[in-house]
Amino acid sequence: MSLLAGSFLVTVATAPAARAYGTIPGREHSNITRAALGCPQSGTDRDYCFDTNSLTVLAGGGGIIENPNFFGAVGWPDNPLKPGGADGDEAHCDNADYLDPSYNTGRGYPQTRERASTALLACVKHAREAFSAAVDDADDLLDINNRLKTGPEFDRAKRQVLYDWGRLLHAVQDFYSHSNWADIAAPNVPLGPDNPPGLNMTTPSLLFNALAPEPTAASIPRDLTTGCYMVPGGCRGHVRHGAPFNGDDTGLNKDGGRIDPKTGQTSNPTKYRGRIGQNFQQSVRAAITDTRLQWVDLRQGLENHYTGPGQAWLMACGLLRDNPQADCRPGTAKAPAAKTAAPKAPAATGGGTGGGTGGGTGGGTARAAKAAACGVSWQQPGGANTTVFMQYVNCGSTAQALAPFAVGAGSESQYTLARVCRTVQPGAGTSWVIDPSYFPPENTNVQTVTHCWPPAPGAATRSQTIAPKAAAERAGTPSAHTGGARLGSGPKQQGTGGSRHSAAVPCGTTWAQPGGPGTTVTVDYGNCMSVPTLIAPLAIGDGPDARYSYTGIAQYVPPGGQAAFRIDAPLFPPEPTNLQWTTRVM
């Protein structure tokens, strides 16, 4: 069948202004989207990759004249000939530029941190609105009998949802190209507007999680910047985006270069910042990973919004498949057999099957369980180093905000995958798909969960209801940490690092609770590793799910940097826990 043929035929006489990963001629947006979501190269099963024609609608392709989907949904914001013309700064995360005076020989910067953060949050809001539009417009995929529509009516509805979502993907992908999140500064060159510091993060940002509460300026690292693209008075003295209007010699963008549409591997970066170190590859990898996460989020968003039997799955299947009326019928999708595991304690020294996630078919701690059992179930059907599928069923009486939790070897090897935190109502369930590109940087187990603590206001969402099995038992795990501050009971004991410091913080985590049990805890962290990290406090109790990651107050800590946290009594977990630990937030 000819998918969506004839819709919005566009004849392009001139290319749009170069301000983003290329839509034409380099087609970087298209290749990132294809590497992330195409079948079978995305590394997941068919519920998480797009068939050929559906992917072309999303990613674009073919010739300009003969293919109405040449720009594709992800390239639509760059199309100057569409109704309304090319989208504005908020669609590309431009003009959120800032440089601390300490990197600028003490001179002030033309724009405040607050104004830069406001500009970046406008980009985030634009992406969230596109996500909401995609979820809302998905309603038009089904008829009054909750079956997929057919013919041109279905094609128009499908195209609308994908083009809504494409606006989000465009902004997310541009964020990694236009910011310093995933890059480094030029070595042996003074820092300044022409060479801003790079955050060098290898994992996606938490900013574009549309299922979480809307971020605030406090969520933005002080040294995070995008480039000035075009503002009244010009970009002189600013951290600049680069060509075409403000010079390409030292622009921050990493827009140009070759990207393999199957593997995501890069070569021949064409922009100044992209040629420094591995900047182009690292920005593309982050964009691919976040694009995959966005599909997982969209599926979850459909499940949250459409709670009728099979509605959300049918909508998602209709978006993915080229022939959905034949392929998207009940019983056509088979889930792998579920497994559950006794979670490894934080002092564990291994990683399951030897892959990035562990916990596969040879993990050693697995036992057979029904997929809908209370607590955590998981699958890694492809074995080590392949996609992990996790589910959680809440058999309790209160809502739980949860994220996958990975544990490796060493005191700093706890990882909260906060980017995919989900709020699960009593009697409901949720699921996660953990792609290999989102694994922690060492062998770990990720077949358990942690609470995203404290629960953020407004985080609760409706979840797809799964009937809980009250008799099912979860494997227990004793606390890995004995001693230390027990919040709410017992005498105060000294933490691993003693009292609060006024001098440089030692490597790793130190803490203090000078007022005794039930009073304020202060947690300090010194990053002596060679890589930057997001750090948040971690509280650990005695039960199988008694881990609480304070991911809402995570701080970016560069190598050699420090972070300090203050946890007051109202923010304590609902049980006695140890709070002298930290987790690395992904």
3D architecture notes:
- The chain contains 8 helices and 18 strands.
- With 586 residues, the protein is an alpha+beta fold.
- The chain has 3 domains: 28-300, no CATH class; 335-477, no CATH class; 508-585, Immunoglobulin-like, CATH 2.60.40.
- β7 (400-407) and β8 (414-416) form a beta hairpin.
- α1 crosses α6 (279-305), α5 packs across α6 and α6 (279-305) runs antiparallel to α7 (311-320).
- The longest helix is centred in the first third of the chain and has 28 residues, at 151-178.
- It starts with 27 loop residues before the first helix and ends with a strand.
- The model is unreliable at 1-18, 333-371, 458-484 and 488-502 (pLDDT under 50).
Keywords:
single chain; 586 residues; alpha+beta; Immunoglobulin-like; 18 strands; 20% helix; globular
Uncertain segments of ≥5 residues (pLDDT<50)?
1-18, 333-371, 458-484, 488-502
Q: Could you give the order of the helices and strands?
A: HHHHHEEHHHEEEEEEEEEEEEEEEE
* Total individual domains: 3
Query: Strand sequence of the main sheet, in spatial order?
Result: 7-8-18-14-15-11
Counting DSSP E segments of at least 2 residues, the number of strands comes to: 18
Number of helices: 8
Shape: globular
- Biggest β-sheet strands, sense, barrel: 6 strands, mixed, barrel
Which bin fits the share of residues in helices?
A: 10-25%
**Beta-strand residue fraction:** 15-25%
- Given the helix and strand composition, which structural class is it? alpha+beta
Mean pLDDT: 80
How widely separated are the two ends? 41 Å
Radius of gyration: 24 Å
